[in-house]
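Data availability excerpt. The first of two example chains:
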Amino acid sequence: MTDDPNKNAKRLVLLFWGVLAFYYFTISWNYISNELRDDRMEEYIQKIVQLAGNETRTPREIRTLVMAKASELNLPVEEDQIKVVGSGHKLKISLEYEVTVTTPILAIGLFSRHYQHSIGYREMQF
């Protein structure tokens, strides 16, 4: 039986590509999940603006609701990053935060993505 002299080299190359694929998919998953959580946060803020505008809630209540949702979605939002201006039909909520996409295992931040939302009350058209 002849032994393939490049057998170990082939295994090493396969291992390298496997690790590279793992890193690529993990980083991609991290980025996509951040985008999905941000989309859910934006939808929630839109609902809050509509409800709080109709019910004339206080800025403190609105800020508490937004912070609760941010905590639920594991978003790094601080209370001072939420701006509530006006009330009733002139209500406007602004939110800014930054999320860092990290590498697996080493937990090194590759890049940061800045999210910014500014949503105001809209009259419902039927």
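And the second chain:
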Amino acid sequence: MDKELGDVGTHFMFENDQVKVWNLVLEPGQASQWHRHHNHYTFIVIEPSTLKTEFEDGTDGESESHAGQVVMGRKDSVHRVTNVGSSTYRNVIIEIKS
């Protein structure tokens, strides 16, 4: 992949030998950095909106979220998300170390 990869969230919150925790906040029209999850992860939606997810293979998809939604993610996933909704989006990402 020729894209420069960045952080998985907008704010690093906590890390120990078991987990790494990030907060992701995206205003309408704002995108995360392209990033790779080096660990399996889950995220919990705090403030919902509509996100477009783009993957390194060129595929993408749009999804609506709801507050309290819990989503499991794949290790080594390379992607970025863009808030295509009309409200602020926020989640908490928990990367699970092996």
